[in-house]
Amino acid sequence: MIGVKTSHHFGAWSKSLIIGVVVCFVVTSLSVGTALYLNHQNDWLNEDAYNFWLVKALYPEVSKTIEKKLADDPKSLNQQAEKEMEKQDAIIAAQAEAEQADKEQKAAKDNLEKVKSGK
After folding, report:
1. How far apart are CA 69 and CA 67, in angstroms?
2. pTM above 0.85, yes or no
3. 13-22: pLDDT as tens digits
4. 3-state DSSP helix/strand/coil percent for the chain, to nearest 5?
């Protein structure tokens, strides 16, 4: 038997091909990610538009007032809306915390009853 040394190296065309494939993969990944993000944002905007359409249909005076205030001073109305949304988020968080505390208290009472009954 004769031992043979082999070596392999990438030629210029191979390096270009590998770089091209990697670039295509990165571009494709970025495109798919962007498309998914934009689809999610579009769904969110459609939901908001539908909600405003419902307000417009059910409460036309309210929608006229909103549109008028937006035309007069949109910055002030946006700030007011952001403050109200923060307030609502804080209320929801406090309610969730209170519910969690109630569940923990109930579990502690149940545990106390089990211990008292000797089970």
Report:
1. 6
2. no
3. 788 888 999 9
4. 85, 0, 15
Kindly provide the b/e burial profile for residues 89-111, where b requires at least 16 CB atoms within 10 angstroms of the residue's own CB. Answer: eeeeeeeeeeeeeeeeeeeeeee
Pairwise CA distance, residues 105 & 82, whole Å:
34
Distance, in Å, from the CA atom of 77 to the CA atom of 51, rounded to the nearest integer, reads 18
What is the dihedral angle through the alpha carbons of 48, 53, 58, 60, rounded to the nearest 10 degrees? 110
The one-letter amino acid code at 90 reads A
Task: Report in angstroms the alpha-carbon separations of 11 from 7, 14, 22, 73, 96.
Answer: 13, 5, 17, 65, 63
